[in-house]
Sequence to fold (330 residues):
Amino acid sequence: MKTITVQSQLKHYPIYIENGLLDRLNEVIPNEKHVVIIHDDHIPITIVEKVKRALPNHLEISFPQGEASKSLETYHQIMKTLLANGMTRDVTVIALGGGVTGDLAGYVAATYLRGVGLIQIPTTLLAQIDSSVGGKVAINLESAKNIIGSFYPPDLVLIDPQVLATLDPRQFANGMSEMIKYGMIADRALFDQLQKQDVRSFLLDAIVQSVSIKKRFVEADEHDRGIRMMLNFGHTIGHALEAYYHYEKYNHGEAVAIGMVRAIANIGVAEKLKSLLLKYELPTSDPVANRDLLDWIIKDKKNQTGFIRLIDVAQIGQAFIRKVSIDSFQ
Fold:
């Protein structure tokens, strides 16, 4: 088993990565622990049953799949369920699923009784390499994504690459967008390997590399004030595209893929990126103009008055912040 420890300012927490890890859950989580298992209603039942069998002292809460569930309404419903079942401060929330589940369940854990235990068990590629690591948890308002949230590191992250076999090709590609992002901003060797080989031939190692990159940025800038903003490459435009289409046309990774291409000023670098995105069946363009996305882009938390801060890539493996005036953003 590979162990990566994130040294958060709030707490140090381990990330365990191993094929078949879910079959050994009771070796890493005490089975007497009182847990709340939160998942969406589309996660494969076989995964849910493995966790429930390993942790018999559980309360199970499910919610409708999709970005629309990262809402005050769903959050409120979960909170009422916890209260109705008499959950106390010694309970641990288990976020079992993808990025939406991790964000929503994480925010529940951060705020219920001013904070309870949290274990992330990500079951999508995107969640395994990105959203489960770093402590960002949040919900949306209709007008803005991740606008209500907190920094709340988990106690433990458990990554089992074998569960990714349950993903359909589009969901797998959703996570590949974030992995390609890591190569673009910080690791030319990873980018080249993804280009030369099929990621499935070295998937566990690729996950370890991706998590290690995320760990470096988180430890250097936990609260997203400086270098950690590089992880938002593609996200300013990507989040706006998701909202523009009411979270119906693109999943997160697809929108970020388009956002990455649009954020790069160097045409040669952009072409190399497009080639790799297409290899993993990700989109590289959309007909909506940047100016039509401004209502959402100006709400991005990274921006300053009168300027949009885009993460750009000068050459593969080296990212920087490029300030663009709102008036010139086309």
In short: The chain has a mean pLDDT of 94. Residues 2-166 form a domain with the Rossmann fold fold (CATH 3.40.50.1970).
